[in-house]
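Could someone model S-adenosylmethionine with this protein?
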Amino acid sequence: MADHLRFQHFARFLVDTFGVCRVFDVAGGMGKLNQELTALGCATTTFDRRHKRLPVTYAERDFTLEEPCEADLVVGLHADGATRVVIEYAAKHRLPFAVIPCCADNGMPYKPWMRHLTELAATLGYAPQESTLPMRGRARIIWAKAR
Ligand SMILES: C[S@@+](CC[C@H](N)C(=O)[O-])C[C@H]1O[C@@H](n2cnc3c(N)ncnc32)[C@H](O)[C@@H]1O
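Reply:
Sure, complex below.
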């Protein structure tokens, strides 16, 4: 089961790793990661389809590669079907990224999905790294600084 502290832990990791910056929070659900990042000084936009959500900057739509780039960092926390596009979008705009993968978009089990995403990032020119947050559930982060 996902840890309710995941938003706080990931927000702290992002600021410690990438600094305070403009963040695209892809598949952000209700906007809880946005709330944590905003509290740490990051101007954050969440992309998701949720009608019921927190009062944060929110784009109520699917995130695609066509989204205009107004961010310094793109992230996805348990972003399911949008995890791959986070990495592809980052590569398109030469941005750093961080994802905490959960379910695959193609039915792949967790470990091969993690390998696949790491290989995708490497193929797109990144030197992907892995960190793990101190929390229950899927807690492994794949991340990279800009190419
Ligand atoms: C497991 S939920 C995680 C939500 C939140 N990040 C969290 O940790 O609670 C996955 C979310 O991905 C969203 N999603 C899937 N594909 C998306 C896309 N292309 N663009 C934006 N959101 C997407 C769904 O609407 C859903 O809210």
